[in-house]
């Protein structure tokens, strides 16, 4: 949404009250090597600028001294408008495509899919850049004592330096409370702040004309500017979105004036700039909002308050979320280096605190780009400088969108996943039409990508668009939320979404003629082209390039996702007392799904047949979905498949990109190999990480890798799948000692714990649901609550269990360690 609605405002107010009552964790020295990024120079390119955001408005801050650039985004500013990609009657070609794939006629199936089963338009809409605020600063002379800093704990970006004997300070924040971007300029001498400011819009030169994609700027009065624009008419959908951005300046001392499109400040003591922006977006079907009225509402409220009050409200609301969880690891001399130098020096072991910074950076990005009532984090989170960004900066659901939210529950940011949950429900709208028209099925389906308008049909080309389990994968996030929170109200609300996804696949699955297993057909293993005997290159009519095909039947990832989806929906129906007949059908179908298989090289097969991949170190490791983020494979329960998964990880090696490294690290963590997990973290830091800690894919910023690193580091320290908690289950040697606070485990547990020399010393566990707590950990542990001993059972070696009560806290201490004192 483009402005704070009543429900969101209530949530924010409640959060502020919580902070004022002490809800934010007190007493921690947050501004250390695990919570601060800094340079001794301005950012030299956009990817290295520091990000700030409130879930709706985003800013990238460069920290210049002669010219400061603050690039701006608004989460609902996309090309196009409400549209549908559903093509009537695509299902008529489906039986022939399925027959061809079962017969091994992959090229023919690919061509027919491209002609008859692609959505129209074949592409989707693009996330757009909004504007740049450019400050031309009048001070001259050499600059010294420069520091450009992002404090993750306060969500304030500060630039400090001395020039011509004057100490200048510039602060930038994006307030989630007052819904504005704030820039504060001060100096330690009066009358020394002079600059000009412009709001500069963007034109989409590749996909627009003067009638449908424009921006204009005009003076707003003596203290401000206004910028207006319209989104691009892309693929004939029509640019339906309008935006407005306003800048207001308030100065202490000096003068402020507007000349045409330039705001000038002369000889001020201090200046506060307030930027408000909004679009006419209401929801994915409605663009009848009034951006000018929305901007006026928030601007009027913000300019009535001092910068100090605005900053205080912003910081308290940010810390309400950020201070819930932390990881503390030993700092070294390298930890004190500027962030760009720190990354260059990192060898995997010489700066343990860097892992804590990566974990907290992911949490900071999620708080900044995904808040209740807003849009989910897209491929670039919230931050985008282009009108034609790489991969349209949309929602890619064959790994990237899901990875953005892997860490949300464990990292104690559950409500930051609300935009994702709402998007999943919105996808069922066109998703049900796509299921009907393309597959003749009930329920709903969503493929490889979607955008602001929640389109669901196959797109880009058959090798990418035929991934039918994108929506099913998204649906597993709904169940994960229930496992962490035990919220039956949430489960009841989203049960129709889960049920609809399962119903689609009950209709879609076909028996494989050779083996009798139920399989998806068509199917792909995302973006990986198998080296099958019939996979020869040919001219693809849809992509207009020479290519092979990824189309097949029953890819391993499909089967892994569906085994979990069917189990989850069956269990949800049992918990809620719904649909016993459906429960039986799901259980029966699950038992017939194609099983996991080990190939001739000892690898977990990625396809039904034992094929190699055409690209040796392919970035996707889709066949390992059942290891992570799924729960089908584990060293203890399925050792043969765990060993086969390790073969795949070793074969794929380290190269890939930022998100690929994060996925590999998380998989190694699930296998219990912390050193291999850290090896992938180190490789990503050295090869795929900007100095601002963003992730890189094909030389373009993608936010998913930063989120994925946070998830992978969390997985090294805490795992809670399989109905048990495992502390430090995949600890690298470089992280042998440390502590963590506020992490969440499935079953409704919140945990603080510390470890020494690779061994858990003590854990404090808050039980919110009152479930039995089962912990798998070596050593002898005593459990107390409120100073009293708790009865503990040991069902097997290395496992302890004890009953809990809702709201009670339990201390688990290693016997003889003195940890309980």
From TrEMBL:
Keyword Cell wall biogenesis/degradation carried by entry: no
Superkingdom field: Bacteria
SUPFAM superfamilies for the chain: Six-hairpin glycosidases
Glycosyl hydrolase family 95 N-terminal domain location: 37-283
GO biological process terms, semicolon-separated: carbohydrate metabolic process
Domain Glycosyl hydrolase family 95 catalytic: from-to ranges: 306-717
Domain Alpha fucosidase A-like C-terminal stretches: 719-812
Alphabetized UniProt keyword annotations: Hydrolase, Signal
GO molecular function: alpha-L-fucosidase activity
Gene3D superfamilies: 1.50.10.10, Golgi alpha-mannosidase II (2.60.40.1180), putative glycoside hydrolase family protein from bacillus halodurans (2.70.98.50)
Pfam families: Glyco_hyd_65N_2, Glyco_hydro_95_C, Glyco_hydro_95_cat
Signal peptide: 1-31
PANTHER family: ALPHA-L-FUCOSIDASE 2
Name of the protein described by the UniProt record: Glycoside hydrolase family 95 protein
Species this protein is from: Paludibaculum fermentans
